[in-house]
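Hi D.,

Good news: the full-assembly prediction came through. Inputs first.
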Amino acid sequence: RKEVEQDPGPFNVPEGATVAFNCTYSNSASQSFFWYRQDCRKEPKLLMSVYSSGNEDGRFTAQLNRASQYISLLIRDSKLSDSATYLCVVNKKGAAGNKLTFGGGTRVLVKP
Amino acid sequence: DVKVTQSSRYLVKRTGEKVFLECVQDMDHENMFWYRQDPGLGLRLIYFSYDVKMKEKGDIPEGYSVSREKKERFSLILESASTNQTSMYLCASSSPSLETQYFGPGTRLLVL
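Then the structure:
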């Protein structure tokens, strides 16, 4: 079983609609969580961190459920520019520092 | 802004060739990482380094080696390239206090 699993999609979303997707992680010792965004043929970039209480950044809301070991990302009022692959990332601190584990990504296509 | 640069965006090599991928960061980050990204498999950690001349194996180190002679530079070496090393290679850097990693633009390597 992969450490971090995501539905690869694609999620086809009409412009202006809301889309949500989850990511599950297997290591209960994971300490922090992130969503990265990766545009086609570009490098991943941090979208937002996910904290225990959940957090919101504009149209994006991230939630963490430690009991069920999943995190979610919700995008409201989708824009064409939101089309990208969203990577779920889990961090576990070790003796040598932070170690990030990446999910395979969920592809989102926002259409007019 | 953090800047991570990689020596080549695209590279074509033949089986058995020695391949050098260079990564340079300008933020004085202690930590540097090499990943490969393949469809359906996500980003997988090859090697990382927490200090000059220091290296640690990641999840898939076989067939690769690394060199960190200067703080800003982290090199990935394919001693004898094979077709199964055709992939997108991404370098990243961070500081120990940060959980966020900053990525370079990636090198698409094709081994024929």
